[in-house]
Design a protein that fits this description.
The complex is a heterotrimer.
Chain A (H helix, E strand, L loop, with lengths): L1 H26 L16 H34 L16 H30 L6 E9 L2 E6 L4 E4 L1 E5 L3 E8 L4 E3 L8 E3 L5 E6 L4 E6 L12 E7 L1 H13 L4 H6 L26 H12 L30 E2 L4 E2 L2 H9 L1 H4 L12 H12 L3
Parallel strand pairs in A: 1-5, 4-10
Antiparallel strand pairs in A: 1-2, 2-3, 5-8, 6-7, 9-10, 11-12
Chain B lengths: L2 H5 L9 H30 L9 E2 L5 E2 L5 H27 L2 H31 L8 H32 L9 H26 L2
Antiparallel strand pairs in B: 1-2
Chain C lengths: L1 H13 L8 H5 L4 H30 L9 H36 L7 H20 L27 H29 L12 H33 L12 H35 L6 H15 L14 H29 L8 H22 L3 H7 L3 H31 L5 H27 L16 H30 L38 H9 L22 H17 L1 H4 L2 H19 L4
Helix pairs in contact in C: 3-4, 3-5, 3-15, 4-5, 4-6, 4-8, 4-13, 5-6, 5-17, 6-7, 6-17, 7-8, 7-9, 8-9, 8-10, 8-11, 8-13, 9-10, 10-11, 11-13, 11-14, 13-14, 14-15, 17-19
Classes of the chains: A alpha+beta, B mainly alpha, C mainly alpha.
């Protein structure tokens, strides 16, 4: 009797636990709790995969319940007792063996059909009104360039809601993987081939994403933000970015050809963002930015920015939510800590410690904060 | 390597365990060389900078001469093919118990093998003089890797055959022990067959 | 010295003592059972090491933004955890059973090549020590067990970390290939009279298929590692884009090996389960032929699915479709296996002893791993799942829930035969329950985390992404899992102090190993058995009406046994020396490699010319 109780508890417990856990999967995917979830897609592309995943999940759950149920049933039903005679010696049964080969094959066919459709749907080249973004992976941050709009930014990808964004992706060092779970599955980025991805965002808001291919010591700190904006907001952001950094001389040389896509180029050629009043910290910071060598790796120019910079573009760093690729909230204090001792915060990062003193850091923060 | 022979005179398949083992090993080696050959083909097609294996006509009409010299390698290939024949004859004589003929044919096999290795050393040196190295381009890297590993196999085979020749010279390969030679012969044939694949892939196909 | 050792041991054998003792007898042993024990002890030690590495990783991930481990340390530990568990724990634990059990199951007195067998073990040990010695230099591999190029290039990984990894794997690869040749020949050639292929125990069948996978998959990784070695040491550009090379080629080569490797890890466990379930159900294996063919079919398909690891690389819709469908196809033979196991227990008289607990736990857990596997066979879904904790959950359900549960079932099942002692049933069941609970607590939440956006191989995660609670739960689970193996160790030590109390046939076994004493004498079978069916010992018992008399320990006089030899050990040291020479090529030039090669040749030559016995 004791054996029987033990046996009952034995299987009831894990099964109940597993079922609970499945319940958690179903309930536990709310975007409030998991802002980076892949289970609440916000784009056409992500929905293709999500639909297939959901279909497969229900099939898998059905199979799971039936097979585990059969297992648990068999364990109770056929438990041996002392003195039992030898059970009937069965070596096989062709009919049932054919059935349990054929039925899974049919289930797989039911999964395979939408899968193949999904493969071709996601591999298709988007047509029409498409915004092209170049995504460039760096150890360990993301560069985003809008070739038709002539603007460059880092670690924050702005996209307009309702317009298809097509990425052309690569890396300057090792393989990374671009992953914005709410909008699309991953796509690896390579040093020697271009990969592509596309999606049309459904809903405005700020979302997160991060590198999904191990890429060295700071792979864990290679996140980015996606800011999905209404077309008007996006247009305003683009116009603003196009004013950033293009010095008069550069502006004269800037191409004036109208970009494709629904977003038009705003008047280019404005000067650097003016200092806020006559803040002396800003002026000191500006000098330090050159004197400390920051300028060697970071550009402050968003419009027609130079390519091949080692560090992230800082033209609008003051307005970003995070710094250091999602490592720190973009507060003055964090920015100051980062400037003084990046290695302590993100060990191995390519930004060296340049011996910036606290008061110098304050000036640099004031300077950078003005770059909105 | 005579464990199995001593322990189990009868096997389930009827095939001597050592013979089955060398066949198994050869099966595994096929994948080794298949991977190296695939690597060669992939990287040759990606190779963009000279030296090239074969003559290349540049857009301007200028011809860049390829490094490969087919006559020399054809000679080496013939040597290897003949060596396969010689080792068959050596084995036949070993089974017949004709020690002198065995020593002769085995020596011929070894000489062919040595000449092949010598040919490869000459070829490699020559290529290096022409500027083809492991580092210079993908063709060089994958060529030297593929043919180098084959050459290593030939060299090990030659060492094995020399060992057997000494054994035979001392009269230690009577007909009852001809299997010792047969196993080496299977390996030798395999190495030759691999070359029969490498030769057209590397030297003939442009 | 060799002569002395041989003479001494012959004297022992002649005196009727099978038992040889002392360190020297272990260093020179060619007895498959002793080599099996060496494999088992070494692999279990590495398993514990890999487990400790996992615990450190779990502590680090227990809280967000944790600084318990530096990022570099974390990367080294997750790389070594994977490499250790795959190459130094699961594969050699399987090898323990190949070694100890295959000759017993097929009615043989040893493997086909006893000294080659010893060489495999010593090379494995050398490879394992070589890899782990990197910790002493603070240069443990840190690029992931799959070592994706071009992160592994000299430019991006300048240290010795990757060198240790690639050279260590080469040593282990040679060990695996030597063992694979040996067991392939052993199974085909050394079967007792009457044991046709279709009468072989299922574990032997699955082992045979595993050897084929090893023979065909390992040469590919050997070449890939050679190419990487050339890139790192000799300036080639196979995987270096700046020189025209293609890092994607590495991924193809790696996974052409890597996917069959998955079946190398799981098929032996399939075999063990197929032995345990019939015995403890008192009923023959259901659908024997289907089990054989489904195993072979899985292995065959295993070579045609490698790119499903690479859906996110953007191979294009045709390749995606092919690899997606071939992957789904594997679910069919795998399903057949699960249903046949259910068919085996169905209608049986289940004896719920510890090995059976683990075998049933295996089925329950493996189903989950199999089903999540079908989920990422679909590329559009896999684009989200790949490289997240969902994948980590999946492969732990097949490799821990599958392989480790299966191997543990085998350990409890064959322990009496191997050690001559019964393990404690109560402690065994405590082990099972802790392991089942700890395992699910550790790995089930990973499904949820992965689908909700937590990528793999990150040394930490920020607050606010919702990952905190479940990660904490997983860390607790990992410690429960560790505790379960502590119970196992207690069981081993506790019963190890007791008497050798195991009868020859404690479980009413069906196969030949249960007809001989526990532990077996050195020659296994005093008289080579003749086999007339698939369950020979059951058949004999039925004929004789009930159980068999306890077999007597006999004098081995007149039974021919192979001589002990230390040359395999010398050869293995030479191999490790060669790889050390490559590692230190900057300092030693070619001389280190040549010294290693000389030792290797010396060992092999003396081995070839010494009398085998």
């Amino acid at each position: 009797m004791l054996l029987r109780i033990a046996a009952t508890r034995r299987w009831a417990f894990p099964s109940a636990w597993v079922l609970c856990a499945i319940g958690l999967v179903l309930a536990g995917c709310s975007p409030e709790h998991y802002p980076q979830t892949s289970l609440k897609p916000l784009s056409d592309f992500a929905k293709i995969g999500d639909d297939i995943q959901t279909t497969t999940f229900w099939w898998a759950l059905g199979v799971f319940v039936l097979v585990e149920g059969a297992l648990v049933y068999a364990i109770f039903r056929f438990r041996g007792k002392p003195g039992d005679a030898e059970p009937k010696q069965i070596h096989g049964n062709t009919t049932v063996e054919i059935i349990w080969t054929a039925v899974p094959a049919l289930i797989l066919a039911a999964i395979a059909v939408p899968t193949v459709k999904g493969i071709f749907a996601t591999a298709a080249t988007p047509h029409g009104d498409v915004l092209t973004v170049e995504v460039i992976g760096h150890q360990w941050w993301w560069e985003f360039r809008y070739p038709d709009l002539h603007i460059t930014t880092a670690n924050e990808l702005h996209v307009p809601v309702g317009q298809t964004v097509a990425t052309k992706m690569g890396t300057i060092d090792v393989i990374h993987s671009f992953w914005a779970p709410r909008f699309a599955g991953k796509r690896d980025v390579f040093p020697n081939r271009e990969t592509r991805l596309w999606f049309k965002a459904d809903k405005a808001g700020e979302y997160s994403g991060q590198c999904a291919e191990f890429c060295g010591i700071q792979h864990g700190r290679m996140a980015f933000r996606i800011k999905a904006q209404t077309p008007q907001e996006f247009q305003a952001w683009v116009s603003h970015m196009q004013t950033l950094g293009a010095k008069p001389a550069a502006a004269a040389a800037a191409p004036t050809a109208a970009p494709t896509g629904s977003v038009s180029t705003a008047s280019a050629g404005a000067t650097v963002k003016p200092p806020q009043g006559q803040d002396p910290a800003y002026t000191t910071g500006e000098k330090l930015f050159t004197a400390k060598g920051c300028v060697g790796c970071h550009s402050l120019t968003a419009f027609n920015a130079p390519t091949g910079m080692i560090g992230p573009n800082l033209a609008n760093v003051g307005a970003r939510t995070y710094i250091a690729a999602g490592t720190l909230k973009n507060t003055d204090e964090n920015l100051s800590r980062w400037i003084q001792n990046a290695q302590a915060i993100k060990q191995g990062v390519l930004m060296p410690n340049l011996g910036v003193k606290p008061d110098e850091a304050r000036s640099l923060v004031a300077f950078l904060r003005a770059h909105q | 390597m005579s464990d199995a022979h001593a322990l189990h005179l009868e096997t389930s398949t009827g095939l001597d365990s050592r013979k089955l083992a060398i066949w198994t090993f050869i099966g595994s080696e096929c994948l080794f060389f298949a991977t190296l050959i695939s690597n060669y083909l992939v990287n040759k097609s990606r190779n963009l900078i000279p030296p090239y294996p074969h003559d290349v006509t540049l857009p301007g009409g200028k011809v860049v001469e390829g490094v490969i010299e087919i006559p020399l390698v054809t000679f080496g290939t013939a040597l290897l093919l003949f060596s396969s024949l010689f080792i068959v004859l050596a084995l036949a004589e070993a089974q017949r118990g004709n020690r002198k003929a065995l020593l002769g044919w085995l020596a011929a096999t070894i000489v062919c093998g040595l000449f092949f290795v010598g040919m490869q050393v000459y070829e490699f040196t020559h290529f290096v003089h022409k500027g083809l190295t492991l580092k210079v381009n993908l063709f060089g890297a994958s060529f030297f890797t593929l043919t180098g590993f084959h050459g290593t196999h030939v060299t090990l085979g030659v060492i094995w055959l020399i060992t057997l020749w000494i054994e035979a010279f001392r009269g230690r390969i009577p007909p009852a022990k001809s299997l010792n030679l047969e196993i080496a012969a299977l390996y030798w044939h395999f190495v030759d067959v691999v070359w029969v694949v490498i030769f057209p892939v590397v030297y003939l196909i442009k | 010295m060799a002569t002395t050792a041989i003479d001494q041991q012959r004297a022992h054998a002649a005196a009727g003592h099978g038992e040889k003792t002392g360190l020297w007898s272990w260093l020179t042993t060619v007895d498959h059972k002793r080599i099996g024990i060496l494999y088992g002890a070494t692999a279990f030690a590495f398993f514990l090491l890999g487990g400790i590495e996992a615990l450190l990783l779990r502590i680090q991930l227990g809280t967000p933004n944790n600084t318990f481990l530096a990022p570099e340390t974390y990367n080294q530990l997750f790389t070594m955890h994977g490499t250790t568990m795959i190459f130094l724990a699961i594969m050699p634990l399987s090898a323990m059973f190949f070694n100890f059990m295959i000759p017993l199951l097929i009615g043989a007195r040893d493997v086909a090549f006893p000294r080659l067998n010893a060489f495999s073990y010593w090379a494995f040990l050398a490879g394992g020590l070589f890899l782990n010695s990197s910790f002493l230099f603070g240069a443990a591999p840190d690029q992931g067990w799959y070592g994706y190029a071009n992160l592994t290039s000299r430019q991006f990984s300048p240290g010795m970390n990757v060198d240790f990894w690639l050279l260590g794997l080469q040593i282990l690869g040679v060990a695996s290939l030597a063992a694979a040749v040996n067991f392939f020949v052993t199974i085909l050639n050394m079967r007792a009279p009457g044991m046709t292929l279709m009468r072989m125990p299922m574990f032997v069948w699955m082992s045979l298929i595993t050897q084929v996978l090893l023979l065909l998959a390992f040469p590919v990784i050997t070449v890939a590692l050679i190419l990487l070695m050339f890139d790192r040491f000799f300036g080639t550009h196979f995987f270096v884009p700046s020189g025209g090379g293609d890092p994607l080629l590495w991924q193809h080569l790696f996974w052409i090996f890597g996917h069959p490797e998955v079946y190398i890890l799981i098929l032996p466990a399939f075999g063990i389960i197929s032995e345990v379930l019939p015995v403890f159900s008192r009923k023959p294996l259901f659908g024997y032929a289907a089990m054989v063919f489904s195993g072979a079919f899985i292995a065959f398909l295993g070579f045609g699915v490698w790119s499903h690891h690479m859906f996110t690389t953007g191979m294009g819709p045709i390749a995606d479709t092919f690899f997606s469908l071939s992957t789904m196809l594997i679910a069919i033979p795998t399903g057949v296996k699960i249903f046949n196991w259910l068919g085996t227990i169905w209608g049986g008289s289940l004896q719920l002893r510890t090995p059976m607990y683990f075998a049933l736990g295996f089925i329950a857990m493996f189903i989950i791993g199999g089903l999540s596997g079908v989920m990422h066979a679909s590329p559009p879904a896999d684009l989200q799942q790949n490289d997240t904790y969902f994948i980590v959950a999946h492969f732990h359900y097949v490799l821990f829930g599958g392989s480790i549960f299966g191997l543990t079932a085998g350990a409890y099942y064959w322990w009496p035969k191997m050690s001559g002692r019964m393990l404690d049933e109560t402690l065994g069941k405590v082990h099972f329950w802790l392991m089942l609970i700890g395992f699910n607590l550790t790995f089930f939440p990973m499904h949820i985390l992965g689908l909700n956006g937590m990528p793999r191989r990150v040394y930490t995660y920020p607050e606010g992404l919702g990952f905190e609670t479940l990660n904490q739960l997983e860390t607790v689970g990992a410690f429960i899992l560790a505790l379960s193996f502590a119970v196992f160790l207690v069981n081993i030590f506790k019963t190890g102090r007791g008497p050798r109390n195991a009868p020859a046939d404690p479980w009413n076994g069906a196969t030949l190993e249960w007809s001989i004493p526990s532990p077996p004498q050195e020659w296994n079978f005093a008289e080579v058995p003749t086999v007339r069916g698939r369950d020979p010992v059951w058949e004999t018992k039925r004929e004789r009406g009930g159980s068999l008399a306890e077999p007597a320990r006999v004098s081995g006089a007149g039974i021919h046994l192979p001589n002990p030899s230390y040359w395999p050990l010398v050869a293995a040291l030479g191999l490790a020396g060669m790889m050390t020479g490559v590692l230190l090529i900057q300092h030693l030039g070619p001389w280190g490699i040549m010294a290693g090669a000389a030792i290797l040749f010396f060992g092999v030559y003396n081995w070839a010319f010494e009398p085998a016995g």
